[in-house]
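To close the section, here is one more complete example, presented without commentary so you can practise reading it yourself. The ligand is aspartic acid.
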Amino acid sequence: MKLHNKILLGLVGGAAAGVASKLMLGQSPELMWVVDKVATPIGQVFLRMLFMIVVPLIFGSVTLGVASLGDLSRIGRIGGKAMGFFLLTTAAAATIGLTLVNAIGPGKSIAPEVRTQLLAEYAGEATARVGAGATFGVETFVNIVPRNPVDSAARGDMLGLIFFSLIFGVALTQLSKDKAQPILAVLEGLVEVVTRIIGYAMRLAPYGVAGLIFGVTVRFGAEVLQSLAMYVVTVLAGLALQLFGVTGLLARFLAGIPYGTFFSKCRSLMVTAFSTSSSNASLPENIRTAEEQFGVPREIASFVLPLGATMNMNGTALFEGMTVLFLAQVFGVELSLTSQIIVVVMSVITAIGAAGVPGGSIPLLVLILETVGVPGEGIALILGVDRILDMSRTVPNVMGDQLTAVVIARSEGATLKLAD
Ligand code: ASP
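Output:
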């Protein structure tokens, strides 16, 4: 059986097994033992294998990508196109989100007692997240320049690591050929090795994905889902619109990739994003998909995709915009058109700033809520369903990166592989 089918089977099998065992056993100690001691550890090993390679992958591929692009004007042109595309698609996503919530009004259907109950139930977790709050200002930009790239990498600050790798790559292009060559050879070797390790990690994927999804389905409380059904359905509809409307159609019209082919070639990528809930953990598979499935030139894939994993989060912006407006509706805060425009702009900025890890956008969501006068603790209301929304929004996040890579490759004159 092909690997991508096995991964899909892992997803469906894990979810079915999770739902069935929960129905039969409830959240009994025995079942929770299986979740904690078997399913989650298997999932964690897969997740950690992916996270383990992110730092060497980003350093190796971004540096090599920039160095292979050669001249500064080409680096600037591709970087500029990528940033422009990220901003446009993210802003479109946030606008779709706000429009849908305005039209459907899911917050108006929440009964006051449900609100009180959820606020009480998730208050502790919410306070912890609010406490971990993010700030936004000049220092946000200053912090992109790392004091110590090793420390940035260790803290998971990917933007710092990318900045260092970019500068390293640019400097490399300015060395004489004999000086640059040995370093390039080492970097090429490094990327080859990392690619092998990605292959190993993906062989684990069917089991890892099954373990992760099994844990999620068993732990998930259907009661919370019921009371927030309208909100969840509205967010999922928005994400689907972004993915199958905006992203799929742009791939068709800007990169010439037939609609079905685009999604079919990205099957493993989408399942990886969904089950890991992390753009960073999906980066290895994202690069592999761009190169192997679509024939995106390595220097473009390895430059654009790490940037995308860190900065381009369409699904996250959509989710943030929707959630702010939803909570405003629940708390009866009237948001004027100006405030809604502020929400769109801040959703775009914070989606750029959010870390590509599970729940990476929550601290930034609090920041937007407080800016427009909705209580930050209000996130308590949605924390119970965030896991499923997080998994779902990560899919358009990574697909938006893949889209950017294929569109830029095409615009740079590359011939894409279109056959399935
Ligand atoms: N989990 C998302 C990602 O990695 C970030 C978020 O929206 O929390 O893309």
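Once you have examined the tokens, check your reading against these statements. The domain at 3-411 is CATH 1.10.3860.10 (Proton glutamate symport protein). The pocket of aspartic acid is lined by residues 277-279, 313, 316, 354, 356-361, 390, 393-394, 397 (CB under 6 Å).
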